[in-house]
Amino acid sequence: MKSLLAGSGRKIRIIILSIFPILAFFISLLVGPYGVSPPKVLKILYEGISMAEISESLDRTIIMEIRLPRIVLSGLTGACLSVSGAALQGIFRNPLVDPFILGISSGSALGAALSIAFFSFLPVQLLSFLFAILAVLSAYLLARTQAEVTRLPLVLSGIVVSSFFTAIVSIVKFLVDPHRLQSIVFWLMGSFSLADWNATRIALVGFFIGSVPLWLMRWRLNALSMGEEEAKALGVNVERERALFICFSTLAVSVPTSLCGIIGWVGLVVPHLVRMLLGPDHTILIPMSITLGSGFMILADTLSRTLTTFDIPCGIITSLLGAPFFIYVMRRGGIEAWGR
Amino acid sequence: MRSGLILLVLLLQVLFADLSWSKCIVDTEGRRVCLSRKPERIVVLTGTCIETIYILGEIERVVGISRNMLDNPFYSEIIGRLKKIPIVAQDMRNLDLEKIINLKPDLFIALDPEHPYGLRGEMVKKIESLGVPLILTNLESLSENYYSIEILGELFEKRSMAMRLVEHMKKIERHVRSKVSKIPENTRVRAIMLSHRPTLVLAGLWGKEDIIALSGGINVAGSIREFITEVSLERIASWDPEVVTIVGTANYDPDLILSSPQWREIKAVKTKRVFKYPYQLTGIFIPRVPLLLAWCSSKFYPDLKIDWVGICDEFFRRFYLRPYYGPRN
User: Fold this and answer.
1) What is the pTM of this model?
2) Mutate to test the interface with A, among B230, B257, B266 (most CBs of A within 10 A)
3) Predicted complex ipTM exceeds 0.85
4) What distance in Å separates the CA atoms of residue B283 and residue B44, rounded to the nearest whole number?
């Protein structure tokens, strides 16, 4: 393992991971159900970026208004989920933690389900975001005993809150008519089919207020991931730091989740793969999780919109790819990067 | 003495009438269902049938419904009694069998397991084991729609009323078909029907009996053999429909599509032919389906001057005893 992580091979891997989202971006931009030739795609992209005066056309609309925002949104979502997963795995010192451990997904799902089923005058995204925050806040407050929040109660209260919110989602699904039920089910499976520039702008805000602080604080994660006692010995205010990381991770995940639904596995698998390739140092793990996560999600969404005539929800693709991939990572010794 | 005799004769008539009453019908799924007495306590879980039963004037016999019928604003508005009928199921998949048994029904009407929202197969067996006659429907065509109405007319001995309804429906269908049949195949409108979100589309589960096809259009999503399915916006753009219709109960309006930059180069948006149909016409294979055909064809081919509002007015006055009260544009 050590040999894998050392020397020029490591640099090459960093370079590959860095350019991976760019490659994924161009692959995704060039393929789609509506045939636009690659030179024309690149010309439209160039004209779009350079703000050149160009006439409206269906080709341009497809590239600039449909394909491009969808790719950017999926990339941002992948980055947010992966960086959040990496940070939470670090602070909980647990390889099985994913970004939804504190109840974000069930909170988001409940908000979306309520909006679709009963409060259609309130945007799905707004309720989804608010309930995601509410879920994490509930988990955090439940875990708070004697003015201190420790790891195990936090994970357990996350599980409790998740179960509770999931039960309410089930009640909503039970009460709703079949057409609305179908909308809820599609939302729960996660999809970028409604991506547009507005959604992308909101995701970008989520990325900046959630993922960028995680990236800036990546040095401190190394101290936290050594364990509470060691971190305290180094002078780290463990509880405050942990609260900050949870806060930023929640923001990073809840914003894209509210926009495109629940997309699982990315936040679990990507940090593992990066850890396997480059080791547990968070100064590298965090930025490379961002790049690999965004590239992975872009490719997964490309498959979801091109494999069949209908749109396969991206959450299904990530689960189909993620589960076997996770087994592969484990067998290759990815878990060893944590130490036994 | 004489009055005593008359009473006896009347009593015997009633007794014999009840005893002699027995009927066997074949439901739309080809199942033979026999009833030994006229149904008085019916559990109905399908919107199509509750509407027909209401039109036939037999709603008083319904003792149990599914809750999702109340989600349909049209049923709540038209069938005043609906809210007073006990709810025995959430939908076809969630039945309270104990509640149903308590109601002592003598007839049960539900959707066939083959329908996308139909009963579960094991539930069919359970209901049959209770000895309650079970009529299953899975309407996939207008002819099955008419047949289901005729069955109910037969069961309630309201044949003439049922035939009046069917004949009126057929008259509207013929009218629409005669108008749209003049449109050459190669100039037929390419249309799409959007469901509860703009990327959920009505696909081609029913083939030629698809609402768009019956209205003289071509369903651009018709090649997908599903009821409703999610497609990408890019896919919709690649189909480039000339008309976009939105289901009446969706919580968004044509303005959302017309103002979106993602849709602006699609023909239907360029020509501002994006329409949401009135929720008063919402539903597939219900007694009002010919009204929806008239509405769709009038939007597909405005030159044909199909007076869908007049058609709705007449239909509503005849069968719902009130004028059509939805939007008229």
Assistant:
1) 0.80
2) B230
3) no
4) 17
